[in-house]
């Protein structure tokens, strides 16, 4: 890895780590939804959540579905063909890295009270 490549890791990687670990209190076995899973922050979030033992659903555009699977996501939702918060499935953590989800709707799709 070059110094330039290595220097790109900390900001996006730490943003994802702080969101999932410090704010989300991520734990093994939890259902975690990452919105923007193909992006800089979201791609780290998927990998960190998997490393923590979570069951991860990544949300991305149609061109990046395979990429997000390769990051380790158990399920992938293409936001152009399906509402990421539709359906009955509940999440323990919803990490909206791109701020496109409705906060109120996310609260209903979460097993616990939404905080931030
Ligand atoms: N990168 C950092 O170091 C960093 C640090 C702190 C905060 N932030 C902030 O975090 C946010 C994300 O940054 P980023 O660097 O991860 O951005 P990015 O690399 O540009 O990724 C943005 C992602 O958003 C996805 N997206 C676009 N429309 C969407 C929709 N309707 N639903 C779900 N996903 C959608 C795109 O997915 P597709 O391409 O698959 O459509 C794309 O992968 C920004 O607000 C940024 O300011 C970034």
Alpha-beta content class:
alpha/beta
What would CATH call the homologous superfamily? Answer: NAD(P)-binding Rossmann-like Domain
Total strands: 4
pLDDT < 50 stretches: none
Bound molecules: NADP nicotinamide-adenine-dinucleotide phosphate
- Mean pLDDT equals 94
The H-and-E topology, N to C, reads as HHEHEHEEH
In short:
With about 120 residues, this protein is of the alpha/beta class.
Keywords:
binds NADP nicotinamide-adenine-dinucleotide phosphate, 4 strands, 116 residues, alpha/beta, Rossmann fold, 4-stranded parallel sheet, single chain, 5 helices
Task: Report on the architecture of this protein.
The chain is of the alpha/beta class. It has one domain: NAD(P)-binding Rossmann-like Domain (Rossmann fold, 3-Layer(aba) Sandwich). It is 38% helix and 16% strand. It contains five helices and four strands, in the order ααβαβαββα. The chain has a four-stranded parallel beta sheet. α4 links the parallel β2 and β3. α2 packs across α3. The longest helix has 15 residues. The protein is globular. The protein binds NADP nicotinamide-adenine-dinucleotide phosphate (NAP). The site of NADP nicotinamide-adenine-dinucleotide phosphate has 18 residues, from α2, α3 and β2.
SSE topology sketch:
Layout: H1 3-7, H2 9-23, E1 31-35, H3 40-51, E2 55-60, H4 65-70, E3 75-78, E4 93-96, H5 103-108
Parallel strand pairs: 1-2, 1-4, 2-3
Helix pairs in contact: 2-3
Bound molecules: NADP nicotinamide-adenine-dinucleotide phosphate.
The site of NADP nicotinamide-adenine-dinucleotide phosphate has 18 residues, from helix 2, helix 3 and strand 2.
